[in-house]
Amino acid sequence: MSVETIAPETRAAIIAAVQDGFAGQVDFLSEFTAIRSRRHCEGEALDFMARALHARGWEVDDWTVETQNLSDEPGFVDCAGEVPSVRSVVGTLEGAGEGRSLILQGHVDVVPEGPDAMWQVPPYAPHVRDGWMYGRGAGDMKAGKVAALFAVEALRRAGYVPKGRLHYQSVVEEESSGLGALATLARGYRADCAFIPEPTGLGLVRAQVGAIWFRLKVRGRPAHVAYAGTGASAITAAMHLMGALQEMEAAWNAEAAAHPWYKGVAHPLTFNAGWIEGGDWASSLPAWCDVECRMGVLPGDDVAARKARIEAVVAEAAARHPFLCDTPPEIEWHGFQADGFVLEGAEAPEAALAVAHEAATGQVGPEDQIWTALTDTRFYGLYHGIPALCYGPTAESIHGFDERVDLGSVQRCTEVIALFIAEWCGLRAV
Amino acid sequence: MSVETIAPETRAAIIAAVQDGFAGQVDFLSEFTAIRSRRHCEGEALDFMARALHARGWEVDDWTVETQNLSDEPGFVDCAGEVPSVRSVVGTLEGAGEGRSLILQGHVDVVPEGPDAMWQVPPYAPHVRDGWMYGRGAGDMKAGKVAALFAVEALRRAGYVPKGRLHYQSVVEEESSGLGALATLARGYRADCAFIPEPTGLGLVRAQVGAIWFRLKVRGRPAHVAYAGTGASAITAAMHLMGALQEMEAAWNAEAAAHPWYKGVAHPLTFNAGWIEGGDWASSLPAWCDVECRMGVLPGDDVAARKARIEAVVAEAAARHPFLCDTPPEIEWHGFQADGFVLEGAEAPEAALAVAHEAATGQVGPEDQIWTALTDTRFYGLYHGIPALCYGPTAESIHGFDERVDLGSVQRCTEVIALFIAEWCGLRAV
């Protein structure tokens, strides 16, 4: 498939239109970033997006599906029942006809911000300083998401509508399971390409890891610390399990040295104990401790087999422990059971992206990235054969304090997306 | 000082009076145990005790002192400012004259109950089964506290009033700092003996450990787990510190093998990480982790020197750690900084207790106990030269789930306390 390269003056007009709209785009991004759209609390962000689509003339599909009704979809996870339903908002522009269709997808969920005191600025009072916008979610991935919407606006402002159909999709659960992306595919949305503007620093994600989430629930019989037997503390028992999982992490990383995509990456697979809570009193031997964990897997790894290995590591460590041997921990699979993914067979949209990237940035590119994180692209590419590009602005400290996005890169990214739509979907002057 | 042993028929009348009042005592204990008097929430329990004292004709002193105004008292701790004030309720019966005075002290605070699901019965819906009352605080130490009040009632019912002055003291903070006992001493309450009916299984606490509480606050700069450098997780950093403190625990216990009172006790000093909280998301590298810790000390140990050793252990462990070496943890001393204590020079009240114990139980005793926990006795014995006896009923699973107290032992204990008052304070028939 050849790329229909648009005329240089059209490109210049599109880039100028992005520039003209950029102050308004930053205001919109700031308003969107101010919404604390954490897991299970994404409603206001979805409302915001639905209103924005209505106001811009998109046809809006705003629906909620019971999670259990998604269970036949490839990539489904039940999150230990903790996500009873999934709401999504999809805007559609039917297009002027005869062009390739495109899904512009982005998630509205953000990860917890942690203690406000550890931020230099409040996490939900977005703030621009030295060309960066600060705020939880500004980088991951509200800036990219807003860029995609304003890219379409810029095309209109420049006097064009895309020929191919566009779906602008706002999803949840990207940070925890992918059930949002899965819900849109279950609804029947398909296109010739999917584009997800996660913060890639204007690079293209070539390969990404998968991830497995699990919660260790250590339980026992507590006592006054005066009667503490050795090894009966649920907190120290949890430490013992975490030590065994760190050994597993080292072994899996050693195996990764043979992987075609990850052999050059130092420590591609991370075990992370990201959340721990146990006990409630300094002088009571703690009888319970929960640890929420994440472990990476490589593209090509069988997730079910990796889960079995995690179970075996935990069971073996418990068997060696004086207290856990009688009271083994429960494992709850409460989120990601996600495959890794490598972008392949996407030459046509990649060529269109290369044209757009060079036109906007003046650089040949984009550069390939081998990611140690994951995105929703796997649902499109791995399970539905839809080429799925992940490309977006430059962010720092995502999932950390003082998360921020470089507004210069946001403007470039908006130009690239607009030009990509032009190349991929085609344009008709209005 | 010789013991004024009372007549056998008087004893029999007192024991009968305890029996007569016991059903009402169990009801009263049940009502008292139903109050969830956790740290910072002891008001309702103190109100309950003040009402009970008023109704029984005690003179009641119910006061609150700013904690900072206690700072000159021996044994003071500031709890990192987390206890701004201390309320106490003391009832006084002036006595018929010419007898030895007595403080009957007990704490109303209870430790957290943990998840309700781990109890067979709800922790604040006291329940009697097979002669045991179940409920948080039933054993530690509401049953003993109520026994002391009903012991005085039994004397009255038998037709006697004590010759010596009685102070019935309800205090807070026994489980965390001892500031309640300290507040009563600062108020000026003194007596010839203090008696604290903690659950000792009708034994006498001869020696008790001290304890030091401290909170480790590990802080760092977090990141998406994709960018996790080795050792940057606050949770794994906290695990590293806990490992170093467990090594310290082993060393201190090895030293304890030379202690005159504790050389025969296996593992007298317990390090306990009783409460941990860190991070908030499986896929975010945790940037903070707090651990509340308790470490025991022996009678004769210098608490300030032991605190310095804890600080050194934490500092050395931090210096060895790739992340903590630049960001050492904070240590907050948020509770106990308590000396150990050995009961010595209390021959007179011990003789009175032996008479009472034998009269009520038919056994020679009570047996000495070497405790690996602590009580408020240290304030009376160590800092004010008041002989302080700790003797009370039989409880199980204190600080654990399904905490319970043996009601048979509660009745025996009530008899012993009534007889002890008779022996110690003397009686006058009314």
From TrEMBL, chains A, B:
Limits of the Peptidase M20 dimerisation domain: 207-320
Domain of life: Bacteria
InterPro entries assigned: ArgE/DapE (IPR010182), Bact_exopeptidase_dim_dom (IPR036264), Peptidase_M20 (IPR002933), Peptidase_M20_dimer (IPR011650), Peptidase_M20A (IPR050072)
Named cofactor requirement(s): Co(2+); Zn(2+)
GO molecular function terms noted in the UniProt entry: hydrolase activity; metal ion binding
SUPFAM superfamilies listed in its UniProt record: Bacterial exopeptidase dimerisation domain, Zn-dependent exopeptidases
Keyword set includes Secreted: no
Swiss-Prot/TrEMBL keywords: Cobalt, Hydrolase, Metal-binding, Zinc
Pfam families for the chain: M20_dimer, Peptidase_M20
Keyword Hydrolase: yes
PANTHER family linked to this entry: ACETYLORNITHINE DEACETYLASE (PTHR43808), PEPTIDASE M20 DIMERISATION DOMAIN-CONTAINING PROTEIN (PTHR43808:SF25)
Family statement drawn from the similarity comment of this UniProt entry: Belongs to the peptidase M20A family.
Name the record gives this protein: ArgE/DapE family deacylase
Source organism: Roseovarius bejariae
